[in-house]
Amino acid sequence: MTYPTSLDVERIRKDFPVLSRELPGGRPLVYLDSGNSSQKPTPVVETVREHLAMHYSNVGRAMHALGAESTEAYESARDKVAAFIGAPSRDEVIFTKNASEALNLVAHAFGPHLWGSSGEGADPRFALGPGDEIVISEMEHHSNIVPWQLLVQRTGATLKWFGVTEEGRLDLSNLDELVTERTKIVSIAHQSNVLGTVNPVADVLRRAREVGALVMLDASQSVPHHPVDMAGLGVDFVAFTGHKMLGPSGIGVLWGRGELLDAMPPFLGGGEMIEAVWMDHSTYAPIPHKFEAGTPPIVEAIGLGAAVDYLQGIGMDAIEAHERELTAYALEALREVPTLRLIGPDTLDRRGATLSFTLEGIHPHDVGQILDDSFGIAVRVGHHCARPLHLRFGIPATTRASFYLYNTTGEIDALVRGLHHVQKVFA
Amino acid sequence: MIGESMYQELILEHYKHPQGRGLREPYDAEVHHVNPTCGDEITLRVKVGDAGRIEDVSYDGQGCSISQAAASVLHELTAGSTVEETLSVVDEFTRLMQGRGQVEADEDVLGDAVAFAGVAKFPARVKCALLSWMAYKDAVVRSASR
């Protein structure tokens, strides 16, 4: 079976200098770990270098030419990201340091606190205490589990979660019992970082709206790989990170509905997030700056803007189609490896280009080590920051291959050859 | 093929055919150690007999080939030796593992454990090799304080 793709992968690979380097021992690099972090194309590297070399200054505060240039570049990165994700307003795009910070920022908004000295600004949608509930899922990355655990520990609220089916789908059979009038927010992965599963957001959203709960998506694994539209999704908050979408590390994004962001208390206090400060109280800047205390990751944001330009130049539809082709090829190819157990959907139906698996009798750390040392194949091994999901499947760890726009079917062939070799070593 | 030096034949043999695996009675002390970064774990028991001689080291656990083979080699090396002798082997093994590949192994002291020399070049795997040996040291200390 073939799927049409308009990607000229060989040309794209030339934009990523690292892909043509050799590892010690003359091994060519086969990079199948983009779900962990993606490589960076020359335009991103050059944009960051050019800004640091010629335009750098602090943003928002400096009254001089470089300050203006830096501010202009930083804020235009926000415009690019807003357009890329179909945000109704650019002010709804908050720059954070990563997706984890974006998730923590939203979790922090909930609680019994009445912010402002006389309680003005407190919003019942964010009031949380004993009897209130938060719903997540068993397939979450730790960054969409721990902030909510900390929140319920602070407030006495209750944490609940969707289970995961044997096939690796969100188990919605008890949706109505799980998401109830007591639920304040449902926060789930848009796409699982282990299973590759793309979750049925609309079903969850429908129930959440019935009961008046907010909905947040951890879109770290979806925004880099699919066309994603905030208005179309209809949820309240979305978190994702720059380094998985060809941008630098140290820059993440929280998108939220403006009206909610306005109602939320600040997260971190500091410079630039204020309107006016007295010794005993402060008033706060409007969004997005209310949530961007201190000097932000300036060049990282600008680099993310360049990454967004690059992705749009290729086209997210084309990238999605290419990854779909790779996934189809890999699902087929991995089937030929004896004792390989795929953890996650084994068809193309509602899944992305992330494939996790086990090999009978061989620990993933040994698999990863031999793939790397013998063939230069970079995969991720371990629990991928999703330990509860691995416990659910009764395994300590998996080997994970994750693909992106620059990967080829030839690299999947190399992976399969590598796995056969691993099995020979441990036979 | 730089890394397969880590997977010495002897290590693979111990991994495929672990010696002394399984938890046995009687024992003086039992410990449970985990490596949180990779989830490897081991439960290990020590039985010390007359004149401070190790009668049995029994263990059970899960993990990569390095951690499991290291436990198997440990079982073989400790059998019949005095606690004191085994602790000097543990010290030498620890020195080798933490030597970043720069330390010359003393084969007279280490015996089969010298096969793990290649692991020292892989910082991420050193803890795998040391897991059972650290558990053993802990168990011996506990058995002495009983």
From TrEMBL, chain A:
GO molecular function: cysteine desulfurase activity; selenocysteine lyase activity
Catalytic reactions of this protein: (sulfur carrier)-H + L-cysteine = (sulfur carrier)-SH + L-alanine
Superkingdom to which the source organism belongs: Bacteria
UniProt cofactor(s): pyridoxal 5'-phosphate
UniProt domain Aminotransferase class V: residue ranges: 30-415
EC numbers on record: 2.8.1.7
Name of the top EC class for this enzyme: transferase
Keywords, comma-separated and alphabetical: Lyase, Pyridoxal phosphate, Transferase
InterPro entries per record: Aminotrans_V_dom, Aminotrans_V_PyrdxlP_BS, Cys_dSase_SufS, PyrdxlP-dep_Trfase, PyrdxlP-dep_Trfase_major, PyrdxlP-dep_Trfase_small
Function: Catalyzes the removal of elemental sulfur and selenium atoms from L-cysteine, L-cystine, L-selenocysteine, and L-selenocystine to produce L-alanine.
Record family assignment: Belongs to the class-V pyridoxal-phosphate-dependent aminotransferase family. Csd subfamily.
Full protein name: Cysteine desulfurase
Source organism of the structure: Nonomuraea roseoviolacea subsp. carminata
Species lineage: Bacteria, Bacillati, Actinomycetota, Actinomycetes, Streptosporangiales
Automatic annotation (TrEMBL), chain B:
GO molecular function, one term: iron-sulfur cluster binding
A GO biological-process term: iron-sulfur cluster assembly
InterPro entries: NIF_FeS_clus_asmbl_NifU_N
Transmembrane regions: none
SUPFAM superfamilies: SufE/NifU
Domain NIF system FeS cluster assembly NifU N-terminal per the UniProt entry, residue ranges: 6-128
Superkingdom classification of source: Bacteria
Pfam families to which the protein is assigned, alphabetical: NifU_N
Protein name: SUF system NifU family Fe-S cluster assembly protein
The organism of origin for this protein: Nonomuraea montanisoli
